[in-house]
Amino acid sequence: GYEALPFSIVEDFTIFQAVRARGIEGFAQLFGPASRATSGPAASWGALLRQRRRWLLGVAVLPGWAKAGLVFFSGYWAVLAALALLGHLGWALGAWALKVLATYALAAAASGRAGLFRPSPLTVVALEFYTLVLTTHLTLSRLFGSRAVEWKGRRYG
Q1: Per-residue pLDDT tens over the stretch 8-62
Q2: Residue 90, SS3?
Q3: pTM of the full predicted structure?
Q4: Which of 9, 68, 104, 116 could make an S-S bridge to 124, C-beta 3.0–4.6 Å?
Q5: Distance in angstroms (rounded) separating the CA atoms of residues 53 and 56
Q6: How far, in Å, CA of 39 to CA of 65, rounded?
Q7: How far apart are CA 103 and CA 124, in angstroms?
């Protein structure tokens, strides 16, 4: 049935939607050493941004509750900054520390389950700042840049 699906630059998400549209509810996300796949990093910061901008097109068709969760996640740093600016630096640092601990716990559990080494806590802290920079860059480029997406040598949008 893949050939009957409409063209999409987020193919895996389109396939998932088609499966769900057929009423198939009995699916599972495999997670373990036998199902683990490793991919290489993006060739450059620009390539990473192009990939993530393409993925954002898939977000556009998510249900409202999923979009709300992504907005909440993306706005986390803004809330921390607002707390700090309002004079609640301790609350901001405490909330950030809780997020780092929760992320580390999830990463440690997922790594163990996937048969990988646990990340260092410093890696999780670095991930926080990487995520902040990436999210900020994507948001600004979405608001003030071109809305076109490049994929496999072609421009869409």
Answers
A1: 888 888 888 888 888 887 777 788 899 888 889 999 998 899 888 888 877 777 8
A2: helix
A3: 0.76
A4: 104
A5: 5
A6: 29
A7: 7
